C-alpha cells in the first residue's frame, strides 16, 4: 500500500486541497483499489494551471474522473492523483451551444439538454462517466459518439498552458483520441440543436430501458470491459469462449452482459484484473482474437507490479 511520504513537501502551495493516502477505491464504480499517495482537488482552473506549472516533472500525475471506467490496483497510485471536482461540472446552454465542464456527468448533460428541448445528446444518457472521459476515449452508445456533437474542447497541458481544441485536432477513432495523454480536459462545447420535446423524452426513455435490460447497472461494475473488434462485438467473443458467469475470487463475468465484470462484494482489484486476463486468454484460445481492455487500469498491485497495462493506460483513468 502507498503510505504517507514527504511528497507533499515537494508540491506547490495551492488554493485547492491535498489529501495524503486518499482512498481511491471508494470513488470507483468497482469499489476496489488502493490509495493515492496524494490526491489533489483544484479550487479552479487558475489553481490547476499553477499546480501543473510548478510541480516537479519527476512526480507522476494521474487524472481520474467519476471512476466509472477505472480499475485502481490494490497497491495504490504513486504521485499525485487529480480529480477536478464540482467547479468543473457546470452545464450552461446558450447561443446554440451546450457548454459543460469536464467533470459533468454524461447523463446530467443529456438531461440538461432534454430540459432545454435540445436534441442530439440523448445518447449521453447511456454513457457512464464524465464529459472529460468521453472526450478522452471518444465515448459513444446507441449510434452516436462524442465526436459527432463536439464543437470545441479546452485542455491544459503539463506546463499549465490552456489550449482550445477543435474536433479535427483530436484524431478521433473508435474509443480513442490522439490528444496527448498528459493533457487534462477541463471543458467542452457541444452542439445544441432544437428538437421536439416529446421525441426527446421518448428517446431518453428508450435508452434507459435498453440499458437497464441489457447491462448490470445496479451492481459494482464499470462500463464495457473490452473494446469491440473490427469483426465482432467483444461480448460475442467472450460468450463463444464460454466465459459467461466465470468467477475468480470475488469477481464474476456478468451473466446478463458478458462484457461486464462484477465485484460480487468481496473482490479485490487483483481478482477483477485476473478475471479479465483469463477472459482474454480464453477468447484468444477460442478465436485467435486478442481483446483490448476498455477499462483503464492504474497503479500497482500489492507486489509492486503494474500487470499487463499499456503505457497509455498507466497515464490516465
Task: Write down the domain tally.
Answer: 3
Shape: globular
Question: How far is the N terminus from the C terminus?
Answer: 19 Å
Number of strands: 18
* CATH fold name of the largest domain: Uridine Diphospho-n-acetylenolpyruvylglucosamine Reductase, domain 3
Order of helices and strands: HEEHEEEEEHEHEEEEEEHHEEEHE
Strand content: 15-25%
Uncertain spans: 309-317
Profile the largest sheet. Answer: 5 strands, antiparallel
Which structural class should the secondary elements be placed in? alpha+beta
Helix content: 10-25%
Compute the average pLDDT.
92
Name of the CATH architecture of the largest domain = 2-Layer Sandwich
Q: Just give the CATH class of the largest domain.
A: Alpha Beta
The number of distinct helices, counting runs of at least 4 residues, comes to: 7
The Cα radius of gyration reads 19 Å
User: Which strand order spans the largest sheet, edge to edge or round the barrel?
Assistant: 6-7-13-11-12
Protein model, in words:
The protein is built from 7 helices and 18 strands. The protein has 317 residues and is an alpha+beta fold. It folds into 3 domains: 7-83, Uridine Diphospho-n-acetylenolpyruvylglucosamine Reductase, domain 2; 89-214, Uridine Diphospho-n-acetylenolpyruvylglucosamine Reductase, domain 3, CATH 3.30.465; 234-294, UDP-N-acetylenolpyruvoylglucosamine reductase, C-terminal domain (Uridine Diphospho-n-acetylenolpyruvylglucosamine Reductase, domain 1). The strands form 6 sheets. It has a 5-stranded antiparallel sheet, covered by helices on one side. A 4-stranded mixed sheet has the order 1-2-5-3, with no helix packed on it. Strand 11 (150-156) and strand 12 form a beta hairpin. The longest helix is centred in the C-terminal third of the chain and has 19 residues, at 269-287.
